[in-house]
Design goal:
It is found in: Cell envelope. By secondary structure, this protein is of the alpha+beta class. It is built from 16 helices and 22 strands. The longest helix is centred in the last third of the chain and has 18 residues, at about 390-410. The two termini are about 45 Å apart.
Length: about 550
């Protein structure tokens, strides 16, 4: 989604789970070394904005919700969805009807049972056009969900029905390969109708206006810190060791590192200025994200409608220089889909490697041909690239400017506005070139592909290709994973490649990672490539060897 631009949101099921430390699982804790103080202090760069799952649209908020609420399924330790509130589920022969069976002992934090009716209510509330949920489309595989969201159907026509307290029947529009993965997204969380109606417009704005069914509850919430405490009513409370989690909101990386070094934080984010200082220590941790950073070329601009100009830009850039600037484990990108996302079966989508690689000589040749076709003796000197205002990616933008000047003799201008202005300009098409990041919400490459379809509202560049559109629709409609992978590979080449039918519709830069420092005493804090940033359910703290 567009709220995922810039890796904010961050947010599809994790294709890769990275755990901190090398300790044992939470069910096999080192009894004698388990610390008496099970309080975890971590930091995030963004504030919690709401506890209403229908309004969540950023990664920090989704991360909190992932730990205080629980859906039918949740992301498990082994990169796959596992049962949450559901004990099991059945799938019909035509793969269009899913029947979920809920735990009899599942309770909300106020002691009332979690029922199938809570899921039916929560999902339909997310779809209700009055709710104005930006992530409602995640629910669109459900029968009549899109029509209800657009005011063309009633709530009763949506394919979500509570058969009784413990049975939820979900009917899809068509078979959907990754529907179970989708149910781990926060948009699929249950909600209590009585609580929502009691607090109305204030629902989700204060911890006391909520009930929780996840491993933790929010005990305190300010702009500076969110405090979580263990939920004693949680269904699987025996798996939870942490008694408290303090999430400090720290936007300045240096401040976070200072707090970490003074033992006031157990984990903190790094940027390129600090990676070298920690990279060889046992505290260093890299997390590969399901994110691709790229340049969009506004094809309403005559210069970028020229295919040879687009291809020249793609071929001119050396991505190795960019990842050396990032220093956080990011990888050079020569395609759309990051290696953390699955292709066929458990294999990475990038099993066949990258599509494009730098070729400066070819870039110069194509650039010259493109200028000739446009009747230009020299490239335009008024092209502006909207870039990031954060240090590392801002430095990458400077590197791109320098590479284009040296290799193509083309001097572009840079603009690094605030993130809000950045997104607004690109969404309105008020740009020439624009750096963006797209992050998957669950383990499915489709969400990376569909934003380039002609009629997709997220297609800010105006890229259009009829065959590409057709291939993506075919991929969405197949239930054969092998066939879908084959179709998507063909579509990716059309979008990315500089040969054959390739259109070079965008310029891939790098597959993003994040670098952290984390105390070795913190065990089984699972960090995710997609969706919510982390899961605290299994985390625990051993006695500090010091």
């Amino acid at each position: 989604m567009w709220k995922k631009w810039n890796g904010i949101v961050g947010m599809i099921l994790s294709a890769s789970v990275i755990f901190a430390g090398c300790g044992v699982s939470n069910n096999q804790q080192e009894g004698s070394s388990l610390s008496d103080n099970q309080i975890l202090r971590l930091s995030d760069t963004g504030e919690l904005t709401t506890l209403d799952s229908t309004q969540a649209k950023d990664v920090p908020t989704m991360s909190v919700l992932n730990n205080v609420q629980e859906g039918l399924m949740r992301l498990g330790k082994e990169k796959k969805p596992e049962e949450g509130m559901a004990t099991s589920y059945d799938i019909s022969e035509d793969k269009k009807v899913y029947t979920f069976y809920l735990h009899e002992d599942a309770k909300w934090s106020d002691g009332k049972p979690v029922t199938a009716y809570d899921f039916e209510y929560g999902w339909k509330r997310a779809l209700d056009p009055k709710t104005k949920s930006e992530y409602a489309y995640i629910l669109f595989p459900i029968k009549n969900a899109a029509r209800f969201n657009s005011g063309q159907a009633s709530a009763d026509e949506v394919g979500v029905k509570a058969k009784d307290d413990r049975t939820l029947v979900v009917t899809l529009e068509k078979p959907t390969l990754n529907f179970i993965n989708m149910t781990t997204h926060v948009e699929y969380l249950p909600q209590r109708k009585d609580i929502v109606e009691k607090y109305k417009e204030n629902y989700g704005l204060k911890p006391e206006y909520m009930v929780y069914n996840g491993p933790f509850v929010v005990s305190s919430w300010t702009q500076q810190k969110v405090e979580l405490v263990k939920n004693e009513k949680y269904l699987d409370k025996n798996a939870v060791s942490l008694t408290k989690v303090d999430i400090h909101i720290i936007k300045d990386v240096a401040q976070g590192i200072n707090l970490y070094n003074s033992n006031q934080l157990d984990t903190a984010l790094l940027n390129q200025a600090f990676v070298d200082a920690f990279k060889q220590t046992p505290d260093y941790l890299e997390v590969k994200e399901a994110s691709t950073v790229f340049i969009m070329l506004n094809q309403k601009h005559p210069f970028f409608r020229n295919e040879k100009i687009r291809k020249a830009i793609t071929l001119a850039l050396d991505r190795e220089e960019m990842v050396q600037i990032m220093k956080d484990g990011s990888l050079p990108a020569g395609a759309l889909i990051p290696p953390t996302l699955s292709g066929e079966g458990i294999n990475s989508f990038r099993v066949n490697g990258e599509i494009v690689k730098p070729d400066v000589a070819k870039a110069k040749e194509l650039f010259k041909q493109g200028l000739s076709e446009l009747n230009l003796s020299a490239p335009p000197n008024n092209v502006v690239m909207v870039s990031y205002d954060s240090t590392a990616k801002r430095d990458v933008a400077v590197n791109i400017k320098d590479q284009l000047r040296k290799k193509l003799g083309w001097d572009i201008k840079l603009d690094a506005p605030t993130w809000k202005i950045h997104v607004d300009r690109l969404s309105r098409g008020d740009y020439d070139m624009g750096m963006l990041t797209w992050t998957a919400d669950y383990d499915d490459p489709i969400s990376h592909f569909e934003i380039w379809q002609s009629n997709n509202p997220m297609n800010f560049s105006g890229f259009k290709n009829a065959k590409y559109d057709q291939l993506i629709e075919q991929a969405k409609n197949t239930t054969d994973a092998k066939q879908q992978f084959k179709i998507l590979l063909e579509a990716e080449k059309i979008l990315t490649d500089v040969q054959g039918e390739g259109q070079a519709g965008f310029v891939p830069l790098f597959y993003a990672s994040k670098a952290y420092i984390q105390k070795p005493k913190v065990k089984d804090l699972y960090r995710h490539a997609t969706g919510a940033s982390y899961t605290l359910k299994w985390a625990y703290i051993v006695k500090d060897k010091k």
